[in-house]
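Thread amino acids onto this structure.
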């Protein structure tokens, strides 16, 4: 009998699952705010359709997923579906008690799951408590307390109140490194983000205990050791010991042995041409007997990716395999495999409330219908980030029902694009001040408008600039600049100039890291001279109309734009006259090379300039002077030929610069770099006289430079001493 009952029970379930009802009418009960039509839409309910119990359960789940209802009941009465709901209360207002700073409030509210005008869900409120606590931890309030309460309003809404006790901010007093660390503590403190609390770090938030910051410290330490040859380094979890209202932050390090690379190998698919990867093979040869460095290995992988893209090898995946040989040697294999092939079905752009979608799409290197390429996809995201109009850029690859087709979701978070910048500087030959106002995303088209004023002891310059990074959707930048410059050098150089005009130029990447920047410029200049100026100089008084075209060829192989440690940058510049009352040809070349060895970063730079008068003598306002950074320790504009006590500049200029950092000084200050430099250079030659010149006197100087990356911006301090200072004033 027992078995018969079980069989009947199973049979009953089967009947319930198989049975389907036709719904011809829907009744909604107890709904006050949410309309019948909205509920039917959310549930996807269709009249006249057969519904099984399983399908009704799916509708029920869909309605619950909206979070609008705390309870939902279905009741089939013939062909009528009766839906009885209990609506959740709507959050009218979210209040953060205990937090005064508006910036902190906005940051917390932005990340909460429950928003104002959304339904109240208890488990989401509990999740938001954790989010608030994490945000406060990141701000240094490690002993915060948070709870939540509700206030019922007369309109059936609620105010959600988070009661926050910040507690005391938890400062880091000492950062300690234990174990087989190999390096001194002061060196390791420069690697991590967390900082010890010092009186001069009154602005920094890095001196407060922050779990996310500590996790970043661990990753940075591991990366540092992996790049220094310590293949088996182990960075153990940190510990924070609270003592006398401060934390001591402790990192335990087991560096292990330094490993060198014994052999390297590149393994390619059978259908790949080895000749295409000859450059990689040469790099692998150079890696032998060098210290293991994860960064160098990743550069090889990037090189493989770049070659694969340029040679149209789609869907490749490069990986690294290592084999330990003995106690301190490694064999490295770079394995290139053909990865899963798929194409881009659709690209969805999300989060752009101001920026036009076309502006975003035109910065993408991968289009709908193209084969997916991870390198081009990464470049697309970098293009978006480089525009400086987004706070954050994310991407997600989503599967579709078609196996070899996938969608890409690009989500951007727009930021405030208006800027007001104020700057000032001071040196031995005077001070400068600058003010500018900019809008980086005019009308949502990605166009930048800016106007600025720069004032120094000798010069006042004002300008208005319009820059379109993707003019007419041509993938080319276009920039127009209207300017007026007033230069008063009567005291030192015997002339005064007012120059007004406009320029228009473009810039684009011709090849990998090779940029071409042509510019058209026209201007009107009025030149006056001092009463005691030389006859040659007085003869140049008057007005000049000049139109020229110039260009820059820029090969930029630096590993990073700021604090460069590897690579080089080479530039060639030329300005060619088109229509001019004084035709001059300007040529320039410079190269800066950067190297790093055992934390010693060096750079060597060569700077060359020449200007030639094609029909008349080169007027004084177009003559060359060395930039300050190319010959430190000398007053600006006072190098080279002197005519009747006036420093008139020259037709030629050259300088050679050497610089190295001093890593052992100020190493306890993470934001301070100290450099030693030697400069040598000269300005010489004037075309109107053989007696005015200074070609035989090479100037040189030496000194130290201190760079401080302060919380409000970078500061540079230079102390230089001339070695040879002929004709120095």
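Threaded sequence (729 positions):
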């Amino acid at each position: 009998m027992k078995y018969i009952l079980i069989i009947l029970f199973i049979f009953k379930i089967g009947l319930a699952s198989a049975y389907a009802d036709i719904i011809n009418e829907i009744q909604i009960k107890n709904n006050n705010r949410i309309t019948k039509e909205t509920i039917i839409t959310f549930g996807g309910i269709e009249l006249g359709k057969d519904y099984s119990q399983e399908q009704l359960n799916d509708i029920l789940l869909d309605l619950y997923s909206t979070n609008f209802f705390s309870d939902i009941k279905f009741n089939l009465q013939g062909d009528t579906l009766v839906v009885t709901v209990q609506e959740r209360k709507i959050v009218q207002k979210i209040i953060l008690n205990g937090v005064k700073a508006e910036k902190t409030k906005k940051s917390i509210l932005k990340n909460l799951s429950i928003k104002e005008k959304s339904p109240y869900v208890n488990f989401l409120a509990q999740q938001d408590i954790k989010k608030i606590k994490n945000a406060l931890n990141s701000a240094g309030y490690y002993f915060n307390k948070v709870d939540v309460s509700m206030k019922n309003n007369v309109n059936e809404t609620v105010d959600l109140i988070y009661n926050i006790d910040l507690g005391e901010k938890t400062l880091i007093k000492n950062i300690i490194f234990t174990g087989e660390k190999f390096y001194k503590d002061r060196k390791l403190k420069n690697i991590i983000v967390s900082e010890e609390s010092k009186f001069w770090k009154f602005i920094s938030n890095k001196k407060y205990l922050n779990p996310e910051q500590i996790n970043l410290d661990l990753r940075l330490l591991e990366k540092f050791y992996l790049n220094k040859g310590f293949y088996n380094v182990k960075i153990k979890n940190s510990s924070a010991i609270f003592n006398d209202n401060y934390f001591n932050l402790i990192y335990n390090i087991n560096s292990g042995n330094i490993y060198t690379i014994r052999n390297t190998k590149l393994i390619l698919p059978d259908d790949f041409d080895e000749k295409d990867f000859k450059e990689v093979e040469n790099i692998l040869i150079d890696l032998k007997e060098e210290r293991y460095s994860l960064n160098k290995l990743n550069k090889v992988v990037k090189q493989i990716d770049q070659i694969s893209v340029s040679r149209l090898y789609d869907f490749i995946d490069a990986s690294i395999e290592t084999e330990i040989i003995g106690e301190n040697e490694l064999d490295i294999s770079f394995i290139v495999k053909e990865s899963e092939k798929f194409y881009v079905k659709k690209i969805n752009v999300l989060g752009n409330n101001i920026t036009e979608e076309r502006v975003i799409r035109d910065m993408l290197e991968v289009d709908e219908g193209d084969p997916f390429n991870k390198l081009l996809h990464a470049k697309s995201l970098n293009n978006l980030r480089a525009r400086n109009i987004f706070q954050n850029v994310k991407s997600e690859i989503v599967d579709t029902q078609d196996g070899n087709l996938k969608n890409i979701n690009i989500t951007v978070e727009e930021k405030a694009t208006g800027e007001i910048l104020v700057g000032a500087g001071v040196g031995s030959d005077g001070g400068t001040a600058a003010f500018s106002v900019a809008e980086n995303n005019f009308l949502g088209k990605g166009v930048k408008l800016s106007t600025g004023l720069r004032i120094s002891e000798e010069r006042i310059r004002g300008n208005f600039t319009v820059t379109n990074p993707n003019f007419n959707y041509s993938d080319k930048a276009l920039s127009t600049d209207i300017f007026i410059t007033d230069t008063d050098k009567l005291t030192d150089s015997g002339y005064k100039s007012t120059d007004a005009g406009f320029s228009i130029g473009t810039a684009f990447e011709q090849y990998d890291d090779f940029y071409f920047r042509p510019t058209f410029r026209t201007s009107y200049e009025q030149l006056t001279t001092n009463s005691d100026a030389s006859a040659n100089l007085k003869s140049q008084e008057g007005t000049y109309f000049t139109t020229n075209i110039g260009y820059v060829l820029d090969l930029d192989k630096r590993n990073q734009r700021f604090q460069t440690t590897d690579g080089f940058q080479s530039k060639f510049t030329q300005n060619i006259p088109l229509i001019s009352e004084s035709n001059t040809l300007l040529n320039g070349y410079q190269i800066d090379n950067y190297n790093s060895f055992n934390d010693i970063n060096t750079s060597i730079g060569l700077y060359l300039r020449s200007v030639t008068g094609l029909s008349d003598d080169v007027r004084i306002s177009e003559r060359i002077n060395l930039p300050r950074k190319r010959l430190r320790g000398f007053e600006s504009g006072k190098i080279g030929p002197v005519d009747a006590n006036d420093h008139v500049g020259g037709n030629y200029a050259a300088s050679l610069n050497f610089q190295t950092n001093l890593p052992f000084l100020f190493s306890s200050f993470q934001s301070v770099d100290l450099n030693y430099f030697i400069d040598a250079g000269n300005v010489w030659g004037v075309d109107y006289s053989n007696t005015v010149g200074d070609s035989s006197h090479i100037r040189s100087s030496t000194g130290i430079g201190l760079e401080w990356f302060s919380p409000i911006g970078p500061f540079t301090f230079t102390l230089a001493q001339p070695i040879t200072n002929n004709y120095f004033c």
